[in-house]
Amino acid sequence: MDKEMKRKAILNDALLPLLIKTSIPTIIGMLVMVIYNLTDTFFVGILNNKSMTAAIGIVFSFMSFIQALGFWFGYGSGNIMSKKIGEQNDKEAKDMASIGIFFAISTGLIIAFLSQIFIIPLSKFLGGNASNDLFEFTIEYLRIIILSIPLGLYSLTIYNQLRLCGNVKEGMTGLLFGMITNMILDPVMMFTLKLGFIGAGYATLTGQIVGSFILTYFSFKSGNISLHLNFNKERIYHILAGGMPNFSRQSVTSIALILLNMTAAKYGDSILAALTVSSRISAIAYMIMIGWSQGFQPICAMNYGAKKYNRVKDAFKLTTTIGSIFLIFSAILLCIFSYKLVKTMTSNIEVISISVQILRMQCITMPFVGFFAVSSMLLQNIGKYLMASILSVSRQGIFFIPLLYILSVLFSQYGIYLLQPIADVLSFALAVFMVRSIQKSFVKT
């Protein structure tokens, strides 16, 4: 009954209140995620060792790839689950949930096993060998984080299934419990238990365990999980193809981060630490925008499945307009307070100077990111998987990676500062072109 009420609300309620209702839990979740990412950097920064700060960023590039897999299985299964609920086919939705979870757990176990065996070459590949200290800290931190990989994949898969099926509050609650546990345990394990730098890794692992238990409880409570697996080619296709845009975007982002670290490493640990700090701060606005955009996704998927195409178009326009206005104000504030914000993350003068320059450059094009993000979600949720995949990888892949080498050759270290702003403008232009090209496919209802 509760599921049917949510379906009717998403198909019929006024859009602005509905968007606010569906996005508030995800915005809160994204805020906590930002604080969560800042927490590790903040407490490690207290240790006043730029190599440790840089190691956090190095390992994050690897975990970004793991998150890509979680979003792949979670979005792929959750997106088709949402459509099936829109069609009132709850049994098919449950079967899709179980297959997505199976993919997540089995893949996580394989990756964790292989990563532990090849941890030294993996650390080198990630760019962690820029200095002896950085290499040592990268291996030390990575060894603990690897243990959390199966749990991380499992949690992200269930979270996205819950969210895309309208159980936004439950999904965010489970994710938040894990992240809050991590944040509380960071100072406890690092300073109270005197584990130092490695304590941040143990805090992350514990947070993943707690989050997994809470998300499992909510998934069973909402009736999303079936305890038997029922594979067929069509179901596997929908999960893998439906989640491909998210996997493409996240995995390309991870690859871009690795290549960025490798390219920036020749300029020393300071720029690696600065990239870590500036990215954490710029993520404040970007992640809130993503949270707002994610409120649009269940509205888009269910209404498209119910053939209410005009409602999809109206929701898209409303989401992009409000999101872009928010990013304009955010960019202004982050630019004005960039020095003070960076100084909370590190006391190293050189790292502060580089971080401020990078952050202010990113603020110039930040308002363009909103339309790009919502456009990618629109294309994915209406089944334009190939277009969504291309757009998803454009910002950090198609444009970012070639520009990384072109700009670093032309402008040396300063080219790295210009990198993200130029990629943002080009990906925005591509999003405008793609959205206009599919508007004719929306027939009047």
UniProtKB/TrEMBL annotation:
<dbReference type="InterPro" id="IPR051327">
    <property type="entry name" value="MATE_MepA_subfamily"/>
</dbReference>
<dbReference type="GO" id="GO:0046677">
    <property type="term" value="P:response to antibiotic"/>
</dbReference>
<protein>
    <recommendedName>
        <fullName>Multidrug export protein MepA</fullName>
    </recommendedName>
</protein>
<feature type="transmembrane region" description="Helical">
    <location>
        <begin position="197"/>
        <end position="218"/>
    </location>
</feature>
<feature type="transmembrane region" description="Helical">
    <location>
        <begin position="141"/>
        <end position="159"/>
    </location>
</feature>
<comment type="similarity">
    <text>Belongs to the multi antimicrobial extrusion (MATE) (TC 2.A.66.1) family. MepA subfamily.</text>
</comment>
<feature type="transmembrane region" description="Helical">
    <location>
        <begin position="56"/>
        <end position="75"/>
    </location>
</feature>
<keyword id="KW-0812">Transmembrane</keyword>
<feature type="transmembrane region" description="Helical">
    <location>
        <begin position="386"/>
        <end position="408"/>
    </location>
</feature>
<keyword id="KW-1133">Transmembrane helix</keyword>
<keyword id="KW-1003">Cell membrane</keyword>
<dbReference type="InterPro" id="IPR048279">
    <property type="entry name" value="MdtK-like"/>
</dbReference>
<dbReference type="GO" id="GO:0005886">
    <property type="term" value="C:plasma membrane"/>
</dbReference>
<dbReference type="InterPro" id="IPR002528">
    <property type="entry name" value="MATE_fam"/>
</dbReference>
<dbReference type="Pfam" id="PF01554">
    <property type="entry name" value="MatE"/>
</dbReference>
<keyword id="KW-0813">Transport</keyword>
<feature type="transmembrane region" description="Helical">
    <location>
        <begin position="315"/>
        <end position="339"/>
    </location>
</feature>
<keyword id="KW-0046">Antibiotic resistance</keyword>
<dbReference type="GO" id="GO:0015297">
    <property type="term" value="F:antiporter activity"/>
</dbReference>
<feature type="transmembrane region" description="Helical">
    <location>
        <begin position="96"/>
        <end position="121"/>
    </location>
</feature>
<keyword id="KW-0472">Membrane</keyword>
<feature type="transmembrane region" description="Helical">
    <location>
        <begin position="271"/>
        <end position="294"/>
    </location>
</feature>
<feature type="transmembrane region" description="Helical">
    <location>
        <begin position="359"/>
        <end position="379"/>
    </location>
</feature>
<feature type="transmembrane region" description="Helical">
    <location>
        <begin position="14"/>
        <end position="36"/>
    </location>
</feature>
<feature type="transmembrane region" description="Helical">
    <location>
        <begin position="171"/>
        <end position="191"/>
    </location>
</feature>
<dbReference type="InterPro" id="IPR045070">
    <property type="entry name" value="MATE_MepA-like"/>
</dbReference>
<dbReference type="GO" id="GO:0042910">
    <property type="term" value="F:xenobiotic transmembrane transporter activity"/>
</dbReference>
